[in-house]
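Incident log, structure service

09:12 report received: a user says their structure output differs between two submissions of the same chain.
09:20 pulled the input from the user's history:
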Amino acid sequence: GYYDMYSTNALRVDHVLKREEIIKMYLESPQDMPEDRVIRFLQGFRLTEEEIARFRLAYFENEKIQNVISYYQEGKTDTYEKVYQKRRLIERKK
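09:34 re-ran on a clean worker, output below:
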């Protein structure tokens, strides 16, 4: 982990992951990937349009991840405003 790297004085890289290997890791078995890990990845890793489409398809049932894709990957700044508006409407109906 990060702290092991921080406290070491020698580091050997055995394998440098290629972009497709990283993407594939998240897409091969989305049900086994922790949601928070996917969200952190999507917040910090720039995807291509094709990769965005693949993530949308792989996580199509997960509204939280869909919102993260909209906001961080597609730049739709009103994404979370819509979520809050939806919540307010639901609360008013109660």
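09:41 both user submissions now match this output. Likely a transient worker issue. Closing.
09:42 reviewer note: Residues 68 and 87 are 17 Å apart (CA to CA). The first helix runs from residue 2 to 6.
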